[in-house]
Design brief:
Chains A, B: Keywords: DNA-binding, Transcription, Transcription regulation. Chains A, B: This is TetR/AcrR family transcriptional regulator. Chains A, B: InterPro entries: Homeodomain-like_sf, HTH-type_TetR-like_transc_reg, HTH_TetR, KstR2_TetR_C, Tet_transcr_reg_TetR-rel_C_sf. Chains A, B: Pfam families: TetR_C_24, TetR_N. The structure is a homodimer. Chain A is an all-alpha fold. Helices cover 74% and strands 0% of the residues of chain A. Chain A has nine helices and no strands. Chain A starts with a helix and ends in a 14-residue tail after the last helix. The C terminus of chain A is likely disordered. Chains A and B meet through α1, α5, α6, α8 and α9 of A and α1, α5, α6, α8 and α9 of B. Chain B binds a DNA duplex through α1 and α3.
DNA sequence: ACTTTTGCACTGACCAGTCAGTTCAAAGAT
DNA sequence: ATCTTTGAACTGACTGGTCAGTGCAAAAGT
């Protein structure tokens, strides 16, 4: 049953070629010929393995997000097993997110670029995929609130979305505009924000 | 000499048509014919007013980011004049960012989608435009550190990027996936994060 | 034997950009 | 007042090129 191994390898090569090109140029600007060439494969092979260009893209998205949410979940779980607090788990997830993005920058870029588009064929695929990721963070936040570790005034869905966004954008920005910084620098800055040592904890003033 | 007024109006219509379409579909997937039709103008008019499709897009970017950074700067200044702290100013900028995105969601979406792409013609335009925005936040952070209001351990460039990202992504996510929430809800969640009432201020643990 | 990949020619749709011609408001002429 | 001219603004049919997807016979891999 290693006939499927060969196919698997071809599909993997196509994913890797497609993710880079689409991240750089966008979906429409990337041609199937380019993808095939970069993967070192004939054009016909692309169509032997995927029904169409957009199907290739959708499967690529599912594949990548699977890796990301698995990595986040694993980080949270490990932190739990080591007896860390829930805030520690959040911190561990931030780091896991950064490591992932460091390893697969193209995928992250493409994900951010496509996530909020309306009217596209794969919009529903992306919605599913987003929920899967944000849900991991929501679960930890909810557990932290229930155990009394975090205040009840926290809005779990909004805070989860904001945290995910913070990590995503900070990491992309780091890679694109401040590549000289280390992963630890970035992690440190985000930790400070999460742990509340930026705003200093003054009470909310009714704003001007 | 109101001929230039007419041109101005045409260009404005083209900006509005283009920003929506490109946000929905992306730059390459949007045709010049579509833009012209949506603007209620002939295709030739597009080329009478702009040298090419990408030039139209670049000028659109400059136009939009001008509005955004002006709005942020104004919010920070007003907060200062009213005798607020620097953290208040940051909070006011968060709100200004949310209001802007609420008003021009298409522009924001398009900005986020294109910002981290490499290899594109307008990449340098975008870099300039990003710096302009992030710089506003950096200035306030730096002032807060200098006045002793914020700790010196804060990494200004990274924190500024993270804050901008947090607002951008939280707002887009709000519009796309949680539209039933109010602007105040979102602002509240982000304020809590900024003011450090999420993580509870435990010391950093050397992570697992 | 069978699955998978190759190479390559082909088609039909689509699209950025062009250009010869039209419109019209206002400046100038009578 | 009325006519003529000017030129900026606009129009839309057309062109040349590009690209997703097809078809298929031969080769390679397992």
């Amino acid at each position: 049953m290693e006939s499927s191994t060969r196919r698997q390898a071809t599909r993997q090569k196509l994913y890797e070629a497609a993710v880079t090109l689409i991240a750089e140029q966008g979906f429409s600007a990337t041609t199937v010929d380019e993808i095939a060439e970069r993967a070192g494969v004939a054009k016909g092979t692309v169509y032997y393995n995927f029904a169409s260009k957009s199907v290739l893209f959708e499967e690529l998205l599912r594949h990548g997000v699977g890796l990301l949410s698995a990595s986040l979940r694993e980080a949270a779980q490990k932190s739990d097993e080591n007896g860390g607090s829930k805030v520690d788990a959040l911190d561990a997830m931030i780091r896991a997110g950064l490591v992932f993005i460091d390893e697969y920058p193209a995928f992250t870029q493409l994900y951010v670029a496509e996530l909020w588009r309306t009217n596209r064929a794969w919009q529903s695929t992306l919605a599913v995929v987003r929920n899967e990721t944000v849900a991991v963070v929501e679960d930890v936040l909810r557990a932290a609130v229930e155990s009394g570790e975090l205040s009840e005034e926290i809005d779990v869905p909004l805070t989860a979305a904001a945290l995910v966004g913070m990590v995503l954008v900070a990491a992309l920005d780091w890679q694109a505009f401040q590549p000289e910084r280390s992963l630890d620098d970035v992690h440190g800055a985000l930790s400070l924000l999460l742990q509340g040592r930026v705003g200093g904890g003054q009470p909310l003033t009714g704003k001007a």
